[in-house]
Design a protein that fits this description.
mainly alpha; about 200 residues; two-stranded antiparallel ribbon
């Protein structure tokens, strides 16, 4: 009777379907928390993403297990600010105004390209946590991730922080509570608890 159960075609098909369903569920991708433009859903995160991007970026990468927070902060700052300073300092010593302007513009352009550092780590986050890929830019998810950072880095950063909040266990999420009992994500070095 036991051999009959193991050789029964219907039983084998059910087992195969169940294993295929289990494989499909394990392959399914998680989705990003909120849309890219939902940056203003959490006001403190929105302002931190705009005015202190390097700190929020380093903090988020660190808590996701992508390395040291301070290394990410320093690298982000260097890639985004150093080209502008270097090219502008070089332009000071040049008498030709057209060349001076070209060097200044090149420095600004290279600073913007420093945002690709954030795009690179967004790609790594999407791959590690199997997040849903967007194929909006030429059908290439990696290019789309970089474009998100180039076009609206605060939006991309806020979405990454919100997504990390959903992926990490509650103990790994430092939060500050405000008087209307909503939870606000705040990096640990910037945590403030308001009481009234």
């Amino acid at each position: 009777d036991n051999n009959y159960m193991n050789n029964n075609p219907q039983q084998l098909q059910r087992k195969r379907r169940k294993s295929e369903d289990d494989e499909q569920q394990s392959r399914e991708e998680s989705s990003w928390a909120g849309g890219l433009l939902d940056v203003w859903d959490d006001m403190s995160l929105a302002y931190l993403s705009v005015f202190c991007s390097c700190c929020v970026f380093g903090w988020n990468m660190s808590r996701l297990g992508f390395g040291n927070m301070y290394v990410h902060i320093a690298t982000f700052l260097l890639l985004c600010l150093a080209p502008c300073f270097i090219f502008d300092l070089a332009a000071i010593n040049i008498d030709n105004e057209d060349v001076r302007d070209a060097l200044g513009l090149a420095g600004i352009f290279l600073c913007v390209l420093g945002l690709l550092y954030g795009g690179f780590w967004r790609i790594q986050m999407r791959r590690r946590f199997r997040l849903l890929a967007s194929h909006a830019c030429c059908g290439k998810p990696d290019l789309t991730d970089c474009l998100h950072w180039l076009c609206c880095y605060p939006c991309a950063l806020a979405q990454e922080v919100r997504t990390a909040d959903t992926l990490l266990p509650p103990a790994a999420r430092p939060v500050a509570s405000i008087n209307d009992h909503r939870v606000v994500t705040v990096p640990p070095s910037l945590s403030v608890i308001r009481t009234t």
